[in-house]
Each structure stands twice: as structure tokens, then as C-alpha cells.
């Protein structure tokens, strides 16, 4: 750990009740084989669409360990490169990105009737 921001970062990633319910629904409906895949896509979706709520941190549900989600540190590096540490410790930012991204994906899947059309709608394309 190189500085105080990283020292205060989390090792257990959380989801809000709503995001956890939406993630479980996406897995149960067969859109994802495992929840970790939906969590990662939630982060990517939020980054691609500029979705981040800096005022909230998902509570109270521990969902998975940082080492399981990001064993090689690529997500952490991406967040640091994107935000430069201005939004807080990287894994706490990842929690917020995943939380809002999972909810947005589920909403769009319901609206559009499938995940393929959600993924095809990439900003700047």
C-alpha cells in the first residue's frame, strides 16, 4: 500500500440490497453464469456510460473479496487511471460503479428484452 487512500480501501466488496437482488435476478434468468461476471460488467457498464454516484457507498451486503474480483489488479488500475484517485480509494469506487451499473443493466434488460441489445448500445460507438 503506497498511500493513505489505499490504506483505507476495502477488501470485501459490497452491494446494496437493490443491486444484490438485481444481480441475483440476472443470474437466475440466465443472463450471467455467475454473479461475479455481472459484478464486473456492472463496473464496465458504469465506466462506459459515465455512471458514478460519489455520494453513496453500497451497504450492508458483503458480496465478494477483492482478490476474487480483481486478482491481477486491472480493475483497480483502470479506476486509478480514470479517476486519478479523486473519487476515493479504488475498490470503494469499484463498489459504487458495480452497484449502479448492475441496477442499470437489469433495468435495460427488462426494458429491451435481452442483454445483447443492452451491450450493443455502447456510448461513442
Which secondary structure elements does this structure contain, and how are they paired or packed?
Blueprint: H1 4-7, E1 12-16, H2 17-28, H3 35-49, E2 60-65, H4 66-69, H5 74-83, H6 90-112, H7 115-120
Antiparallel strand pairs: 1-2
Helix pairs in contact: 2-6, 3-6, 5-6
Indicate the low-confidence ranges by residue numbers.
Answer: 1-7
By oligomeric state, this entry counts as: single chain
**Percentage of residues in DSSP E strands:** 5-15%
* Gap between N and C termini: 37 Å
Placed side by side, the strands forming the largest sheet appear as 1-2
Order of helices and strands: HEHHEHHHH
Largest sheet: 2 strands, antiparallel
Structural class by secondary-structure content: mainly alpha
Task: Give the helix tally.
Answer: 7
Please compute the radius of gyration using only Cα atoms.
14 Å
Q: How many β-strand stretches?
A: 2
Shape: globular
